[in-house]
Amino acid sequence: MPSLDWRAVDGRAWQVFAALIDYGQMLIQSNKKGRVGLEVKIYTKPGCPYCAKARDFYDAKGIAFEDLNAQDDLKLRAEMLSITDGDPTVPVIVENGRLKQIGWEGRG
Question: Pairing between strand 40-44 and 66-69?
Fold first, then answer.
């Protein structure tokens, strides 16, 4: 089998190679955390036991999420209400920009 003379590889090829290695490492790390490429937002309010259960679920699965306090932040509340067509029930879970569920275990 012929050997490759790495000195003959131009700079652009090295950049592409390095980018592919970085991307591969990112995928491996993402996969260790849970589902690859999953972006989760949970709209919550302080003291909500169902919001705590939703957080615990995603933590147990190793899935990172953004915890958004929709009670104290009026902008986040308006954003949440636009997603839920005015339903104020929390938690509201959005995965990759799409509404997954309102409430937790049929409650909220």
Answer: parallel
Long-range contacts of 101-108 (CB under 8 A, 24+ apart): 103/50, 104/50, 104/51, 104/53, 104/54, 105/50, 105/53, 107/50, 108/48, 108/50
Q: Which CATH architecture has domain 40-102?
A: 3-Layer(aba) Sandwich (3.40)
Strand order in the sheet with 92-95: 66-69, 40-44, 92-95, 98-102
pLDDT at residue 36 in the model: 58
67-106 pLDDT, tens digit each? 999 999 999 999 999 999 999 999 999 999 999 999 998 6
**C-alpha torsion sign, points 108, 98, 33, 68:** negative
Residue listed under structure tokens 């190679």: 17
Residue with tokens 């339903």: 87
